[in-house]
Amino acid sequence: MKIIYSDRQQLHCVPFEVLGGEPTPNFEQPQRALQVLDALSVRTSGPVLPPSAHGLAPLKRVHSPDYVDFLADAWNQWQATFPGKAVALPFLFPNRGLRQRLPRHIEGRLGYYAFDLSVGLTATSWSAIQDSADCALTAADLLLAGECSAFALCRPPGHHAGRDLMGGYCYLNNAAIAAQYLLDQGQQRIAILDLDYHHGNGTQSIFYERSDVLFASIHGDPDDEYPHYLGFADETGAGEGVGFNLNLPLPLGETDWSRYRQALDSAIERIQAFAPDTLVISLGLDTFCEDPLGEFSIKSLDYLEMGRILGGMGLPTLFVFEGGYAVDALGNNTANVVEGFEQKG
Ligand SMILES: [Zn+2]
Q1: Please, what is the end-to-end C-alpha distance for the chain in angstroms?
Q2: In 3D, which of 184, 195, 122, 179 has the Cα closest to residue 156?
Q3: Which residues of 113-127 are buried (b: 16+ CB within 10 A; e: fewer)?
């Protein structure tokens, strides 16, 4: 399986975030991607290829044009207003009772386009964000050219990013961009299976009223887990999209592989019935038992079986890398999924 990766993705490095009411070293660190790259290079068939530039047009098929233009220029606006301040960070949001109006000042613009505090931007973030999306698009090109699978080693991740919203370490929704691109290139139906521990609220919201993209997600119950305000089982789609959104929230602290596998079987059954041209897998490894941001108890060897099950679906498959913060185990766990997939796929 070819792996798409760009070194420029290392350029996004926000030193801190706010967790539990305190400034904390950022869990979404560049080292994550290097660990995965090393493990995939050694353990899977490879090779590792750089992304090709696709420009802004495919991004604007999923995100609003004003949001993409904002991301590309946000650092310049920040620097002009706050010279010498290394991280552009939102800190207020147009919540209930406030107007949904894009203000002129950068601090108002950051809040308008964000839903949490995890999405800082530095001088070099945009290069990494754009290359991350290009990794997904380049992997999609491989599938269009007839490859049966590809792995987009995206960083920063994407599945929390909505049409005009960043949050949860995510800026551009790499999986959604790839899915829309495949449709625009002539495919008819895309299934997105989101296996990150957190609900893919951005992906769901982007395709919620669509019947050409099936979104299925297995994740920690949002009553008790981030992103809290989306991801419940009764969200099944709207308008033309009714029946094309499947949320399978699972309880924190009680979800081991056997329980997870039952949910995975349900998702796979729905995906097989949908008969997609391509399966896009938002692959987050924060379901791991030692993940600092997760409360599931999936073990390293379970990921081998997960990969075999995913490969056994027999669908053209595009892996898009999402979360996973137990850095020392992240490479091994990711490689287990891909190795299992290649054994069965
Ligand atoms: Zn996650």
Answers
A1: 10
A2: 122
A3: bbbbebbbbbeebbe
**pTM, whole model, 2 decimals?**
0.98
Q: Name beta bridge partners: 287.
A: none
Catalytic residue among 160, 198, 199, 219: 160
Output the CA 80–ligand 1 centroid distance in Å: 33
Compute, in angstroms, the gap from residue 186 CA to the centroid of ligand 1. Answer: 31
* Angle (deg, nearest 10), helices 174-184 and 125-144: 40
Tokens in use for 19?
A: 């967790």
Closest by Cα among 7, 316, 342 to 179: 316
User: From CA 26, how far away is CA 28, in angstroms rounded?
Assistant: 5
DSSP, res 104:
S
Q: Can you give the residue ranges of every domain in the chain?
A: 2-15+27-52+128-343
Ligand 1 centroid from CA 263, angstroms: 17
Task: Tell me what pLDDT residue 345 has.
Answer: 52
The answer to whether 276 and 283 are in contact (CB under 8 A) is: no
Cis upstream peptide for 156 (omega within 30°) = yes
Q: Which residues lie near ion ligand 1 (Cβ < 5 Å)?
A: 196-198, 284, 286, 323
Question: Distances from the Cα of 309 to the Cαs of 6, 86, 129, 211, 300, in angstroms?
Answer: 29, 44, 31, 25, 15
105 is catalytic: no
pLDDT of residue 344: 79
CB 303, CB 264: distance < 8 Å: no
Contacts of 69 (CB under 8 A, 6+ apart): none
133: pLDDT strictly greater than 80: yes
When mean pLDDT is compared across 1-5, 14-18, 197-201, 320-324, the lowest value belongs to 14-18
**CATH H superfamily, domain 2-15+27-52+128-343:** Histone deacetylase domain (3.40.800.20)
State in Å: Cα 55 to ligand 1 middle: 27
Q: By the 8 A CB rule, do 336 and 303 touch?
A: yes
